[in-house]
Amino acid sequence: MLPTSCPSCHSQLKVKCLKCENCETEVSGLYDLPVLALLSSEDQQFILRFVINSGSLKEMSSELKLSYPTVRNLLNEIINKIKTDEK
Amino acid sequence: MINPFTRIAGWQAFGIGLAVVVATGITGAFSHVAFDGAIDMHLTQKLSVLNSFLFLAIDLFSVVIIMTATGFIISKSFRIIDILGTMTLSRVPLILIAFAGYFTVSPDINEILKNPYVVFHSVSFIIFSILSIPVIIWTIILMFNALKISCGVKGSKLGTAFIIAMLVSEIISKMLIYKFVII
User: Fold this and answer.
1) Cα–Cα distance, B65 to B57 (Å, whole number)
2) Whole-model pTM?
3) What ipTM describes this predicted complex?
4) Is A56 contained in some domain?
5) Tally of structural domains, chain A
6) Is A67's CB within 8 Å of B77's CB?
7) In-domain check, residue A73
C-alpha cells in the first residue's frame, strides 16, 4: 500500500522521485499523488469492485451482501472524500 | 437488532415487515391491543380485526408519507421503496406488545374514569405498561436508523428532522384514525 501521509507529522506526502527499472533513469520533482491514491485501501477496493460491476449498485449490494442504500451511502462518502481531496 | 437495514432494505424489507405487520394486526385484534397511532397503542375492551388492520395501515401510511417528505427535504437522492421497506420493517417489535396483550387484564374504562389509580390494582396491566416502553424505544431506534440508511444523512440535521417527522406522523395518524375509523 502506497504511503500517503507523513509518519511524523501526518501531512500529505508528495512524490519526489520516480525511477525507470529498465534504464535506471530517475525523474525528480515534487508531484501530487493521484486523488484515488489518497483514499484508504478499503475505499480503493470499493471503487475497483464498482468499476468491475459496471457501476451497478444493485450488483455491488449483492456482492457485498449489503443493502442498496448502504452501498449508495458508502459511494456517497467516497465521493465526498474525493471532492475534499480535490480542493 | 437495532440496524438490520445495512443488510435488508427495499422490497425485501417491505415483504418481511408487511408479513409481521399483518401478524401484529391479527394478534392485536384478539389480544385487544389497538395500535392507534404511529408510535402509540392502547388496550381496549373490544377490537375488530378490520379496525386493528385499519389502525396499522393508517399508522404505516402516515409514517411512510411523512418520512418520504422528510427525505425530500434532507436528502439529495433516495428511493421511496427504501423508506417504505425500512419503515415497515421497523414496526416488527410491536408484535411483542400485541402478544403481551393476551396476558393483560385491562381495568374497566368506567372504573378508570371514576378513579385513575385503579390501573395500579392490575399487576398484568403494570407489567404490560413497563414492557411496552423498551419495545417503543426499540421501534423508534429502528425508525431512526431506517431514515438514516434510506436517506444517507447523519448528524443534527437527521436528528432534528426525525423528531419533527415522528411528531407529525403521530398527529397525522391520530387525525386519520379519528376521521376514517368507526370505533
Assistant:
1) 12
2) 0.86
3) 0.82
4) yes
5) 1
6) no
7) yes
